[in-house]
Write the structure tokens for this entry.
Amino acid sequence: MNNRDRLKGMMVGLAVGDALGAPVEFMEPGSFEPVSGYRSGGPHGLLPGYWTDDTSMALCSAVSLHECGEFNPADQIDRFLRWFRKGYLSSTGRCFDIGRRTLEALVRYERTGEVYAGEESYDSAGNGALMRLAPVIIYALQHAQDPQTLAREHGRLTHADPRCIESNAVFARLLSVVLEGVDKSRLLERLASWSSEISDVEVAQVVAGSYRDKVPPAIRASGYVVASLEAALWAFYRSDNFAEGALMAVNLGHDSDTIGAIFGQLAGAFYGIEAIPTEWRDGLYQYDAIVELTDAIIDGVTIDLPPGWK
Ligand SMILES: [Mg+2]
């Protein structure tokens, strides 16, 4: 497998995990027919293969990188705001799913013009920045920039809590190592070896391997960034391929779409795009356009974007 397959797998995996999880978002595990593929419905009444805010925000970042040719924080958050206010890059044409921290940050940005609009609050630390990292990692790696630094900057646009920032940075570091093509046990050993460098005790415990011995309900798909990272790592560690792990992730219910998107970035990069089941690639809303945009960012070239994407 070449690097391009992994980079594309990371971006498409994000959207596929989001689309698989969307129909069971906010549901209690066990209260729904287990997810085995795309289906319609859920709290947003989406069609099968349609994605939510996770993919919309990742696409905002990806289009920004494509249009600006660099990480431009003001352009990034401008596109997030367009999504929030006008439904830009939404699968339905409107913003129907937004996290609390993201909402607060975008309103703050709109009012003050402050680009790094995330608040350094300690009472909640959501997963809304971790879910949208893939395009930034692809750009960083293709332009010899430090993925961890860009992941922190990208996170601070909406989520400046230290737990969010550290989760973003360590996930960026993990994705960078995945793209080197190491095997799973060595990869997770590398991850564990970084735990002593992490300030937040809970993030450090997850990185050290808390996900190895736990099972649901101790593994929970909450919107808390540390729990989300743990749940995605649990599904990755306990499965042998993209499909198996993705279904484990989304069948946790609750914040299923975002756990799917976090898992999907990691597993998509690890197994590569070809390992994502064909029906999940073909059935993904705007699959071709997502792949073409990802290729353009990998190659650093400009392409004609679909109507409304600019
Ligand atoms: Mg979502």
Notes: The chain has one domain: 3-299. The pocket of magnesium ion is lined by residues 52-54, 97, 257-258 (CB under 6 Å). Residues 163 and 200 are 7 Å apart (CA to CA). The chain is about 55% helix and 0% strand.
